[in-house]
Design a protein that fits this description.
Strand content: 5-15%
CATH class of the largest domain: Alpha Beta
Protein name: DNA 3'-5' helicase
Family: Belongs to the helicase family. UvrD subfamily.
CATH superfamily of the largest domain: P-loop containing nucleotide triphosphate hydrolases
Catalytic activity: Couples ATP hydrolysis with the unwinding of duplex DNA by translocating in the 3'-5' direction; ATP + H2O = ADP + phosphate + H(+)
Structural class: alpha/beta
Radius of gyration: 27 Å
Number of helices: 31
Distance between the termini: 74 Å
Largest sheet: 7 strands, parallel
CATH architecture of the largest domain: 3-Layer(aba) Sandwich
Keywords: ATP-binding, DNA-binding, Helicase, Hydrolase, Isomerase, Nucleotide-binding
Number of domains: 5
Enzyme class: isomerase
Strand order of the largest sheet: 13-14-12-15-16-11-17
CATH topology of the largest domain: Rossmann fold
Bound molecules: adenosine-5'-triphosphate, magnesium ion
Helix content: 40-55%
Length: 717
């Protein structure tokens, strides 16, 4: 017990031993919230004798969940199953694997990511002989997202067996969506929205299932609670109702997912939902130097919608925060890389002690080029989309065939390499599958001697999959992957193809599984592995080797690094211009919180960089307002930032504020007839709240055009 409470301050200790009831910990960045949460978990296991299978600990990303598991295992010993240290989605998968049969889905349902969704859409577009592109896909997926905003569609589809009617039914999009839902059901696929919705439906329709989970989970805890959405909050609230133990930690100043439905009010108004709730505040910061902390504190003070709380430093004084201003992006990138070399030489640090953060993925490119030129290793989280690459998806589909033999994986790899199963034979298989109520793979097995399939590679494919199924129990996942790549001929096919990068990626996949098996020190079974991978977002690549870490600020949530560069600190990038346009004051405050998250990742030194020049869209660049809204002496300024540019920046910010405040724009409904000064009369087809524009079909144009809602000269007829 001593050990668990050692290295924690009295408030953290209180958090650790407050195991019963509703408890919230509110505290700023780097105050040891996650540490307290981890120790509390271990305390419940070691000191209260509770099995980890009875504790649900929710974190925000898979990466954070891995990290927490690793730390917990150190404290409680390695043997215990810590599967319930997971994300919201990961937890839903656990529930569904046990109980989804009640909704007439098999336990080996497939989890669909955006790429899988697009594959389904592509098939539909082909069937309907429609032209497709990424933009239409995105529009359809957005509408599907809206439909899945609540659980009605699950009730309709599953329980009443009817397809939910999509608004304005009859239009082409709705037809596509209908087909999509049918297809999705046929392959037993669930996307990320479905996971939560299916669990809610189960809990709602089958009280015994809810009771089972409520009885099982004695203790619930949530990290980064400020970024929970209504649905996520309702899930943990519901689960906690029986035992009454829910422990949450968070920092309202770090809410950065409001645009995706997060709402800090569940954190801020916790005692309204749970009147007996206990609140613990942590005040000391253990992460950063006083210099970095002062900047963070000063920056976030500019937000109006917040409860004031300052962090007190515990670390010795260090160096001032640097603001670097470059003449152009190349100079900026160059300077950053020179600093990195200096840190390495003077401080004898590892590359892994350095992180480069940015508002959007594209900003990394110039620095990447410079790092490559200087031969400095780096790893990019997010944007790289390792698990989205074709060859990686193919490889995983082979494993899924061995485990599940699902239609989606089948369609993905049956003709790669070519096995003479083209469109026509696929249509034949689909039709037979429909008639016989079988999966595509089972159908192929049944008709393998049929004249349509006799002279194809069908038999060979079946033989190799059956062989793999027969050995799967004796093999590790890594071995199974290797064998499957060989016996199906996939690897040979890739070698013939000659794309070295793809081969390297496949090798990297194998490497990552081997590493995973080694760090766990125990075998992972195939289903578990596939489940983990299917929940991977692009942020989860292994980061074991020594390299500079590059990622968006969103990805950096909860993490810390000794040296942090926040690059592209340019007005309209951070704060992001679209966030400002769409959400005005709220948008600006969320952008400022994002800057606060970035700044508070740094332990010893922080560099904010930006440069002159022009943006993607050709607009002139100015330094971010966030750089100027704190006292000047918090920075050491490097680079030539002349007074004239500062004045120009201030004018620019003032002007853009004025536009946001006065514009107002128009708010016409979809279906309205309007008149444009250049394009003439037309009809509004759609109002896109997110992009703040209308899609208008002008009578004299062939295709609809997006027109901004801020455009004042659009007249309603
Ligand atoms: P964030 O809001 O960014 O997620 P956090 O509040 O979760 O931050 P932690 O990551 O738990 O903060 O802790 C920040 C750093 O301080 C970690 O390196 C942690 O090990 C260290 N730390 C936490 N508590 C203490 C303590 N009592 N004494 C010394 N170091 C501590
Ligand atoms: Mg944390």
């Amino acid at each position: 017990m001593e050990e668990l409470l050692d290295g924690l301050n009295p408030s953290q200790q209180e958090a650790v031993v407050s195991t019963e009831g509703y408890v919230r910990v509110i505290a700023g960045a780097g105050s040891g919230k996650t540490r307290a949460l981890t120790h509390r978990y271990a305390f419940i296991v070691n000191e209260l004798g509770v099995d980890p299978a009875n504790i649900l600990s929710v974190t925000f990303t898979n990466k954070a969940a891995h990290e927490m598991r690793r730390r917990v295992k150190k404290l409680i010993g390695g043997e215990q199953d810590t599967g319930f240290i997971t994300t919201y989605h990961g937890f839903c998968v656990r529930v569904l694997r046990e109980d989804i049969h009640r909704l007439f889905y098999p336990k080996n349902f497939v989890i669909l990511d955006v790429e899988d969704q697009k594959i389904l859409l592509r098939e539909i577009f082909e069937d309907m002989e429609l032209k497709m592109n990424d933009k239409t896909f995105k529009r359809i997926l957005d509408r599907i997202g809206v439909l899945k905003g609540n659980t009605h569609y699950v009730q309709q589809m599953i329980i009443r067996g009817v397809m939910p009617s999509v608004e304005e039914s009859g239009d082409l999009d709705s037809q596509i969506i209908q087909r999509y839902l049918k297809k999705q059901k046929r392959v037993y696929g669930l996307d990320f929205d479905d996971l939560l919705n299916f669990v809610f439906t189960l809990f709602d329709q089958y009280e015994e299932v809810l009771t089972k989970w409520q009885n099982r989970l004695f203790y619930l805890q949530v990290d980064e609670f400020q970024d929970s959405s209504l649905k996520q909050f309702e899930l943990v609230k519901l689960l906690s109702e029986k035992q009454g133990n829910l422990f949450v930690v968070g920092d309202p100043d770090q809410t950065i997912y409001e645009w995706r439905g997060a709402d800090p009010k569940y954190m801020v108004d916790y005692e309204k939902y749970f009147p007996d709730a206990q609140t613990i505040y942590l005040k000391e910061n253990y992460r950063s130097t006083p210099e970095i902390l002062s900047l963070g504190n000063a920056l976030i003070k500019n937000n109006h919608f917040r409860v004031d709380k300052d962090m007190l430093p515990t670390n010795p004084s260090g160096v001032k925060v640097t603001h670097y201003h470059g003449k152009d992006e190349i100079q900026e990138a160059n300077w950053i890389v020179q600093q990195i070399k200096k840190i390495m030489a003077e401080k004898q640090r590892n590359l892994s002690d350095i992180a480069i953060l940015y508002r959007a993925n594209y900003l990394s490119r110039s620095v990447e080029q410079e790092l490559i030129a200087e031969n400095i290793d780096y790893t990019i989280f997010g944007g790289f989309k390792f698990f989205d690459r074709m060859e990686i998806k193919d490889a995983i589909a082979h494993l899924r065939m061995v485990a599940f033999s699902d239609d989606l994986s089948f369609s993905r790899i049956i003709n790669v390499p070519k096995r003479q199963i083209g469109k026509k034979r696929m249509a034949f298989l689909r039709q037979k599958a429909e008639e016989d109520g079988l999966s595509l793979y089972s159908t192929m097995k049944k008709y393998v001697e049929h004249e349509r399939l006799r002279r194809t590679g069908a038999k060979g494919f079946i033989d190799s999959i059956e062989y793999l199924k027969s050995i799967r129990k004796e093999r590790k996942v890594s071995e199974l992957l290797q064998e499957s790549m060989q016996v199906t001929g996939y690897e040979a096919y890739r070698r013939e193809d000659g794309d070295q990068e793809r081969l390297d990626n496949m090798a990297e996949l194998l490497h990552s599984i081997v590493q995973y098996e080694q760090t766990l020190g125990e075998g992972i079974n195939l289903e578990e592995y596939l489940q983990m991978v299917s929940l991977y977002t692009d942020d989860d690549r292994q980061d074991q080797f020594d390299s500079v870490k590059m990622m968006t600020i969103h990805t950096a949530k909860g993490l810390e690094y000794p040296y942090v560069f926040v690059i592209g600190m340019t007005e309209s990038v951070l704060p992001n211009v679209r966030a400002l346009r769409q959400r005005k004051e709220r948008g600006l405050e969320e952008e400022r919180r994002l800057a606060y998250v970035a700044v508070t990742r740094a332990e010893r030194a922080l560099y904010l960089t930006e440069s002159e020049g022009f943006q993607n869209g050709g607009q002139k660049k100015y330094p971010s307002r966030f750089i100027f809204e704190v006292e000047d002496d918090l920075y050491e300024r490097v680079g030539e930032l002349d007074e004239a540019l500062i004045e120009e920046t201030k004018d620019y910010i003032r002007a853009s504020n004025r536009i946001e405040k006065t514009s107002g724009g128009t708010s016409y409904e979809s279906g309205s007839r309007v008149k444009h000064p250049v394009f003439g009369e037309g009809t509004i087809q759609e109002v896109d709240e997110k992009k703040n524009n209308y899609m208008i079909f002008f009578d004299q144009l062939k295709a609809p055009r997006p027109i901004s809602r801020n455009f004042k000269n659009l007249e309603k007829l």
